[in-house]
Amino acid sequence: MTDVAQGPRVVPESGLPTRVTVYEVGPRDGLQAETDIIPSAVKVELCRRLYAAGVRDLEITSFVPPTWIPQLADAADVAANVTVPPGARGVALVPNLRGLERAVAAGVREAAVVVSATESFAQANLNTTRERAVERAVEVIAAASASGIRVRGYVSMSFGDPWEGAVDFAVVADTAARLRQAGCRTVVLGDTIGVATPGLTTRVVQETRSAGVPLEDLALHLHDTYGQALANVHAALRLGVAEFDAAVGGLGRCPYARGATGNLATEDLVWMLHGLGIDTGLDVRALAATTRWLSRIRGVRAPSNVAAALAAAGIDAAEPHEQEAWLA
Ligand code: MG
Q1: 60 in helix, strand or coil?
Q2: How many Å apart are CA 178 and CA 132, to the nearest integer?
Q3: Cα–Cα distance for residue pair 284/42, rounded to 1 Å
Q4: Which of 82, 93, 150, 181 is a Cys-bridge partner for 112, taking CB atoms 3.0 to 4.6 Å apart?
Q5: Annotated catalytic residue, options 254, 270, 272, 286
Q6: What mean pLDDT value characterizes the chain?
Q7: How many angstroms separate the alpha carbon of residue 190 from the centre of ligand 1?
Q8: pTM across the whole model
Q9: Model confidence over 261-300: pLDDT tens digits?
Q10: What is 17-245's CATH topology?
Q11: Nearest to 168 by CA among 136, 200, 138, 193
Q12: Domain limits, the chain
């Protein structure tokens, strides 16, 4: 019998990356999609716990106008109070040049921008046309690069769109290539509504690589809405993709399917990667303990399977009085 306290039994599969970057989006993408408003001090503590669990690639907040996303209206306060450990990244999403200025003023040294593969999502979520969103991102990338700030670029709706349905592979690949040419260090293909399956994932990655985005600069942001996220990660691993987004506890519901699951849970991703013998640098028990800590504070059950399984087995490393100690 496997001792789950030690993690999954490790059986490597040949041909997969030996090391994967797990890019944590819980504090930003996760919390922006949840309906409750979390106190800034809890967000700062969440980031501290994530870094302590081994996270080195963390998106901490978003400098969108506060009226757009009230959940992240405290971006400047959070960014100014999060201590990014040496060698780690603390990234902030910025929607435009004004957001970049605010982020830099708060001490942020790495930014992320979002564009859309579809016209409908650009209009609904980015408040502009698809083309203008790309132009705006290119302006931000140029300004950030001039200040020595790296930029990560998301292409939302890369696998399907709630209004338009199937998305043209060529448009996704071309949009990703434009972000890459503009200077994005990493281009992230987002399955914003979780409709990808392994064959579709494989095809979109291949088309994007063919358009000039090297696999080492490509990441996937997958949602588990239909329970396909880990299967899609595995398909991408087989192609050589070595960076995946995830949110601790599966934070972030699907904004287009009420009640449905959104972001892939970090614990679930890390459990599979470790089972494949892939190094992530992350402590899955500390992640699960972080999920339990936040669930208690919010009074919301997290959708992570691994966090639930470890909690049921009584082996997620939470200290009995840690919440009380922290609140004091
Ligand atoms: Mg997401």
Answers
A1: strand
A2: 13
A3: 21
A4: 93
A5: 254
A6: 93
A7: 7
A8: 0.95
A9: 789 999 999 999 999 999 999 999 999 999 999 999 999 9
A10: TIM Barrel (3.20.20)
A11: 200
A12: 17-245
Q: Hey, how many other C-beta atoms are within 10 angstroms of the C-beta on 148?
A: 7
Give the pLDDT of residue 6.
81
Please report, to the nearest 10 degrees, the dihedral formed by the alpha carbons of residues 37, 43, 46, 47 taken in order.
140
Integer distance in angstroms from the first to the last C-alpha of the chain? Answer: 41
Which three-class secondary structure state does DSSP give residue 264? coil
Expressed in angstroms and rounded, the spacing between residue 253 Cα and the centre of ligand 1 is 8
- Residue 209 identity: R
Residue 212's CB is within 10 A of a number of other CB atoms, namely 14
Whether residue 1 is predicted with pLDDT greater than 90 in this model: the reply is no
Cα separation values, 159 from 34, 95, 152, 235, 278, Å: 23, 22, 19, 14, 26
Under a CB-based contact definition with an 8 Å cutoff, are residues 153 and 190 in contact? Answer: no
In the chain, where do the E strands start and end? 21-24, 57-62, 89-93, 110-116, 150-156, 186-190, 218-221, 243-246
Distance 48 CA to ligand 1 centre (A): 21
Choose among 98, 181, 105: nearest CA to 143.
Answer: 98
Instruction: Pick 256 or 27 by higher pLDDT.
Output: 27
Is there a contact between 292 and 308 (Cβ–Cβ < 8 Å)?
A: no
Could you identify the residue written with the tokens 């997958």?
222
- Among residues 8, 5, 59, 22, the alpha carbon closest in space to that of 245 is found at 22
Rounded Cα–Cα distance for residues 224 and 228 (Å): 6
pLDDT tens digits for range 35-48: 899 999 999 999 99
Q: Where are the alpha helices (DSSP H) in 156-197?
A: 169-182
Which two tokens mark 75? Answer: 């971006």
Q: What percent of the chain has pLDDT over 90?
A: 85
CA 222 – ligand 1 centroid, Å: 7
Is 184 among the catalytic positions? no
CA distances from 203 to 92, 108, 199, 238 (A): 30, 35, 6, 12
